[in-house]
Design brief:
The protein has 636 residues and is mainly beta. The chain is built from 8 helices and 47 strands. Residues 494-503 have a biased composition (Acidic residues).
Length: 636
């Protein structure tokens, strides 16, 4: 089927399109939690102002020329002009959620024709009628507004004109008064998005000023109404989930709808009379409905061509589907409804009011799997260590010899594996290998299509058809197969992830022979013995001795073994303190993952072990995503 990976060209990387289980997300609350978790030992201590000193004016970055990265930190929106041209990009730096913009005045609006990535807006609108104009070619990736506008005529996104396509992914919006996403003039792609408690419609689509034969895709999205939505004197509370307002071709797949019995609940999916001749496909969606409203309503006199396949119904309300349709409709299967963070990969998405434990299907009453197999729960991430997401390029095939939709690849992992929510179980397969691992066989991955899998252990090999391109995401972090199996290394890391399981000396000694390998070679291979080779100390031509660094950060992981992702930046040098670091006896994978440091910044992941670092200067920023305890010791 496929050629060996050893002859493949280097694959292009794009931002991930599905982060079912991201561990790198951070937001304002986790930042403040990290600062508050500091315990000071010895003289001095860390002041919160040191860690929160990155605040600035968003207006300094909001009209980029070319590609501009806004440094991780908190900023203020005070009627700033957001304007991103078709050849421009504004990208939030750091980890997902590390750039936070606080509403201080004016209206959160602007124009986007280029790329807008990794930006969190906090606070409600100060003036009415918010809305980012999303123009042809725009790509919005990792935008979150948990508080929403909450003012007259507010919406999060709006199409000013028609066009070929705009894309919104890995994003969330809540509490908009006049449509969450008001995008009914051109084909749209929504992937891995969450719409929470928005009035009129969570997502409004149509091809009013574009070719109606083009396709709007809404994939792997969560649309929820759990509280009465905000409204104003121009409307009333009447919240549809997805509303097809104008004629077009629409595909809604792998989506979750959660509608509780609250004032203002409307139909979960509505085909408006303006979309009466549309072609609508709804497949593999899960409906949790406690209301008497329709799952699917057709206001277009039955003229739409509707297909409904492999969907499921849960809850105490209506399971009515109004239009005639092709396909098997509703089928009986258990479903675990994900939280917004699991859909988007950003923990800040869970901070929208109205979602969380004890609410609707998130009370644990609806559990199980979207799979029809009884052997294992394929949606419970606790059963598997890793989530692998694959997205075929929209541009496949990339040469004349490739056949569209005939893209096959095999992934070999060292442990057990199972299907994720977007796997095609009727085409893909998973088999055990003789060495105790698993072979994941992906067949006929079509352009733009997503497949996801969960597995234990590591990716050890892969085989992929020539002439195709695929984006790879592991645990919410974009990577490549070559990097996963050790053919190339990520920026700032001098060793391969594939060597993490080989306990110690050989790893560090072979990769860091220009620095103090004799010291690192005797330490824990799971930690970044190679970190010393990429820190500030080594950039001067040699390693920095820990004796010269009189301060220490200690990150003590959670005893449960759950991973904590953390970053911190210092104004001086930083190296790992191997003597104060430890890996737990159970050898959890989190404790074997390498951390790395560069230019004074440490990026780490700890399970139930301890990571320690010696440093000089001051700590200038901190993020913490998890339950680890941060301690700073001074005067060593």
């Amino acid at each position: 089927m496929a050629d060996s990976h050893t002859g493949d060209d280097e694959r292009n990387e794009r931002p991930t399109n599905e982060n079912e289980q991201a561990t790198a997300s951070a937001n304002r609350r986790t930042l403040l939690k990290g600062i508050g978790a500091f315990a000071t030992v010895g003289a001095g201590g860390v002041l919160a102002s040191e860690a929160a000193s990155a605040a600035g004016d968003f207006g300094d970055y909001s009209s980029p020329s070319g590609e501009v990265t806004i440094p991780a930190g908190e900023y203020t929106w005070d009627d700033d002009d957001l304007d991103i041209g078709s050849s421009d990009a504004l990208i939030g730096g750091g980890n997902p959620g590390d750039v936070v913009v606080n509403m201080a005045g004016g209206t959160m609006d602007g124009n986007i024709s280029g790329r807008f990535e990794n930006i969190v807006i906090r606070g409600d609108n100060k003036d009415s009628k918010s809305g980012i104009d999303v123009a042809d070619g725009a790509v919005i990736d990792g935008f979150h507004w948990p508080e929403g506008g909450q003012q007259s005529e507010d919406r999060c996104f709006y199409n000013p004109d028609g066009g070929t396509r705009a894309t919104v992914k890995n994003s969330s919006w809540a509490w908009m008064v006049n449509n969450g996403a008001y995008t009914d003039k051109m084909p749209m792609t929504y992937e891995n998005c969450a719409s929470i408690n928005n009035n009129i419609a969570g997502i409004r689509v149509g091809h009013r000023e574009s070719d109606t034969s083009d396709v709007t895709y809404i994939r792997n999205c969560l649309i929820a109404l759990t509280q009465t939505p905000e409204y104003d004197d121009t409307n009333s509370p009447h919240a549809r989930g997805i509303r097809m307002r104008q004629k077009g071709t629409f595909v809604i797949e792998n989506c979750y709808f959660v509608y509780l019995d609250v004032d203002g609940a409307a139909d979960l999916i509505e085909i408006h009379d303006g979309a009466e001749d549309s072609d609508v496909t709804i497949r593999n969606c899960a409906f949790y409905n406690d209301t008497d409203r329709d799952l699917v309503r057709d206001k277009g006199n039955g003229m739409a061509d509707v297909t409904i396949e492999d969907c499921s119904f849960h809850g105490s309300g209506s399971d009515r589907i109004e239009p005639d349709y092709d396909g098997n409709g509703l089928v009986d299967k258990d479903v675990t409804f994900p939280l917004p963070s699991e859909i988007t990969g950003y923990k800040v998405a869970d901070e929208a009011e109205g979602v969380g434990a004890g609410i609707g299907p998130w009370d644990g009453s609806s559990t199980g799997s979207t799979s029809t197999t009884d052997e294992e729960d394929t949606t419970d991430p606790a059963n598997y260590e890793h989530t692998l997401v694959l997205e075929a390029s929209e541009e496949n095939p990339v040469d004349d010899s490739a056949t569209p939709g005939d893209f096959d690849l095999d992934v070999f992992v060292s442990g057990e594996a199972t299907f994720g929510e977007t796997a095609e179980q009727d085409q893909d397969s998973i088999t055990s290998t003789s060495d105790g691992g698993s072979q994941i066989e992906v067949n006929n991955l079509k352009p733009g299509e997503l497949d996801s899998f969960r597995f234990n252990g590591e990716v050890v090999d892969y085989m992929m058809d020539d002439g195709y391109d695929v984006t790879v995401s592991l645990d919410g972090n974009t990577t490549t197969f070559a990097e996963l199996v050790g053919e190339e290394t990520s920026t700032g890391d001098t060793t391969d992830d594939s060597t993490d399981d080989s306990t110690d000396g050989s790893t560090d000694g072979s990769t860091d022979d220009s620095t103090d390998g004799s010291t690192d070679g005797s330490t824990d291979g799971s930690t970044d013995g190679s970190t010393d080779g990429s820190t500030d100390g080594s950039t001067d031509g040699g390693s920095t001795s820990t004796d010269d660094l009189t301060k220490r950060v200690v990150v003590d992981g959670d005893n449960s073994g759950r991973p904590t992702n953390y970053t911190f930046t210092v104004s001086g040098d930083v190296v790992r303190d191997e003597d104060a670091s430890s890996r737990t006896a159970d050898g959890t994978n989190w404790d074997r993952v390498q951390d790395f440091a560069q230019d004074g910044q440490v990026i780490g992941l700890v399970g139930s072990g301890v990571d320690a670092y010696r440093f000089s200067g001051n700590i200038t920023s901190v993020t913490v995503d998890g339950e680890a305890t941060f301690t700073v010791e001074r005067g060593l």
